[in-house]
Amino acid sequence: MKLPTTRAQVPAAALALMLAGSAWGQAGQTVKIGFIDPLSGAFANVGQNQLKSWQFAAEQFSKKNAAGVKFEFVAFDNKGSPQESLNVLKAAIDQGIRYVVQGNGSGAAAAIQDAVNKHNERNPGKEVVYLNYAAVDPDLTGSKCSYWHFRLDADTSMKMEALTSFMKDQAKVKKVYLINQNYSHGQQVSRWFKDVMARKRPDVQVVGDDLHPLGQVKDFAPFVAKIKASGADSVVTGNWGQDLTLLVKAAKDAGLNVDFYTYYAVTSGVPTAMAAGVSGTVRVVGIGHTSVPGVQKWMNEYKAKFNDDWYTFQTYNGLAMLSEGMAKAKSIDPVKVAAAMSGLQFKGFAGDVEMRKTDHQLQQPMYISEWRKADPKNPYSVENTGFNFQEVRAIPAYVASTPTSCQMKRP
Fold first, then answer.
1. Does CATH place domain 30-154+293-363 in 3.40.1010.10?
2. Cβ distance 38 to 44 under 8 Å?
3. Using CA of residue 328, residue 70, residue 354, residue 362, what is the dihedral sign?
4. CA of 158: how far to CAs of 240, 295, 372, 398, in Å?
5. What pLDDT score was predicted for residue 223?
């Protein structure tokens, strides 16, 4: 009679291979990820930076990660258009790509989210997972939430909770002017500020509330004149890219002496405009800043490689989550990985974070940072200006967290 093979009878090297194969079936495989964002047009400088940021993160994580996989990014230019996003999403899927990332524009995000839902419903066995790294309309994890969508950035409401928790304590803040891009994110910034600040500091007046076309305004001087005439002491804006760069330039040219509270002063081109001179203080609400210990090493390496700044910290958390999810699922199959990432707790660049199971909104600390001259304690030079963003307040995840209306349909 043939006796069953025992562990003792298996050579050590063969046993190691067997155990590795059973626990790490995905090890050594390459995971292709489609990058869908503007690489041409008004916001090309931001998109190009973020593509490099994802590629840099892939290079770093491919050296070592929990799942033992390799990451490779394939770029698709959506020109900032929701319709073009659908075209390039189809092209990515046709190439066999099962994971996509996008972040610039909540309109494009909503289109991708809806298309991924429909594709997955119609094509079992070929499911796609969408990692949203910067489109922050709360509806994407609220009324429109999707099992296949995972948001890595804090949404507009979370950022506003963090921002207003700081602003309410600033005695100087009495009259606020709102200026935002006229699409879902900008509209949400306006609405959330008015709602949240009324609760925390009902004495604060909103003395202006402008929405302007996305990426089309070439001269913000007329808007700055309105801000000046309003008597505002502070400006709150969710603008990003060219729209924030030109706003800052117009404010400087007009000698506008107000404090700016922003979501995206870190984005390409804006720091150089600020370094040319701004009369007031510029602050940013975000998930990190240049002085967070967990990002300094990467920022220095990125600068050395590209002579550019790594400011999309979500690229770290995105690949950390993917690799941890793949290790937990013991697979790179999107269905298994999505299930593993739903509710996943993992180590992000700034500490422990959690992908909330109810709506797939990452729960993480927030920071208020301020544009200041570099110093020995904070030596990093953003866009080689001699300035950087330095922390003025850290906001714990539970403070910035907001409730969700998501009624998630799970497969």
1. no
2. yes
3. negative
4. 18, 22, 25, 10
5. 98
